[in-house]
Specification:
11 helices, globular, DUF3626, DUF3626 domain-containing protein
């Protein structure tokens, strides 16, 4: 764990002391899912990444696609204290871990599409400074692992096959400790093809890593309407209101958010429909 801060070293070692199981397949990758067409402080997120040269955590940005509780005493702060034995209690915001997922199913859309249509695919060497849990940390998990010992991929797969957890919630959470440098730690940024020829592609090409494309998220309104209980009738109605030619894709939802006419939390739930029922096979 060369070049890690003392806080990060202590966090990884805390988890390592309590885990068992076989080593992780070194061919697997951690992915960091995000929405590439969202702004951060008025700047497009990919442009902000290019300027920073790094991927920043929620304690630094104050934004995210899950719950926004990254502050002292908040839920995320409490979860990290529990998982890492208080290793980060006195650490600067930038030293805290970055959250992603272990893409153990080798999905083209990343390990946790719940959090966005795009992802950064990290290089193999980042595995040794990553820790893992299942399920997500907000669910108070008891299953933890590291690159040297991880025993619960079969459990996650069994839950997925049996429908115990929703598809969007069935991922192995990853915590990447230390700086995530876009030039040395990232194999590629992987985008939805709906962004080809757009400013999103232009901004992505300014990153110091290759740009790749997956097969694209897309769902028709008939499919959304056939699952009214998934996120509620009012979310189905919103999906119908913003759809283009009776279909949803990441750009359609991004445009609806940019219009300022809809509740961002409701649009997040529309994204859940697209990510759950419209992901590429």
């Amino acid at each position: 764990m060369r070049d890690l801060s003392p806080w990060a070293v202590a966090a990884v070692e805390h988890v390592e002391r309590s885990v068992t199981g076989p080593p992780l397949d070194p061919a697997l990758r951690v992915t960091l899912n995000f929405h590439p067409d969202r702004p951060h402080d008025g700047t497009p997120i990919l442009a902000a990444m290019a300027t920073a040269g790094t991927y920043r955590n929620q304690f630094e940005t104050g934004t995210g696609n899950g719950g926004l509780t990254a502050y002292p005493g908040g839920d995320r702060w409490t979860w990290e204290r529990r998982i890492f034995g208080g290793a980060y209690d006195e650490a600067p915001a930038g030293e805290r871990p970055k959250y992603g997922a272990l893409n153990h199913r080798r999905s083209t859309v990343g390990g946790a599409p719940r959090f966005g249509s795009a992802h950064l695919r990290l290089r193999a060497h980042t595995l040794e400074r990553s820790t893992f849990c299942y399920p997500d940390s907000f669910m108070q998990p008891e299953n933890f692992g590291t690159a040297t010992h991880l025993a619960f991929t079969d459990l996650a797969d069994a839950d997925w096959a049996a429908g115990v957890t929703d598809d969007l919630d069935n991922y192995i959470e990853a915590h990447v400790h230390g700086v995530v440098d876009l030039s040395s730690d990232v194999e590629a940024v992987v985008l939805d093809p709906v962004f080809r020829g757009t400013t999103v592609e232009q901004e992505a090409t300014s990153l110091p890593c290759p740009v790749e494309w997956h097969d694209g998220f897309s769902v028709d309104l008939d499919t959304v309407r056939s699952h009214p209980d998934y996120r509620g009738e009012h979310i189905v109605d919103l999906a119908a209101a913003i759809a283009v030619h009776d279909r949803l894709d990441p750009a359609v939802i991004g445009a609806a958010l940019a219009s300022g006419r809809h509740d961002p939390q409701d649009l997040k739930r529309v994204w859940h429909y697209l990510a759950r029922f419209g992901r590429p096979t």
